[in-house]
Amino acid sequence: MNATQPQKVGIMGGTFDPIHYGHLLIAQSAAEEFTLDQVLFLPTGKAPHKSYQHVTDPERRCDMVKLAISDNPKFKLSFLEVDHTEVNYTYLTLQKMKEQFNNSKFHFIMGADNWSSINRWKESETLITSYPILIYPRKG
Hints:
The protein is an alpha/beta fold and 140 residues long. The chain has helices at residues 21-33, 58-69, 90-100, 112-115, 124-130; strands at 7-14, 38-43, 75-77, 104-111, 133-136. Strand 2, helix 2 and strand 3 form a beta-alpha-beta unit.
């Protein structure tokens, strides 16, 4: 790949409690279908729409993700949200990623269930107009 050509990076966010084969299959399918150079797994830190009283500790969730993706060179783990102690908003996380990886073109991977409620996300219009969104079907 040309060094000046932007990398195509998929962002696969989620609680990953636990990560499972479905997550890996979705990420692999997105990488192949949209010729992504890399997929970043982004475990949720503090999402504004979830209660975290029954969620596994972030360090353990990251360890599970690291183990699950270790055999795929296109898959990487990002600690960006779990290292951030405040509530995480997707549009801000993607802005931070854009600053850190300025030679990357990000593609946000989400389930159809999340897509159906995207209008309730903070700055959803910014997210929709700024990044390609790859939507995978979900039951129900």
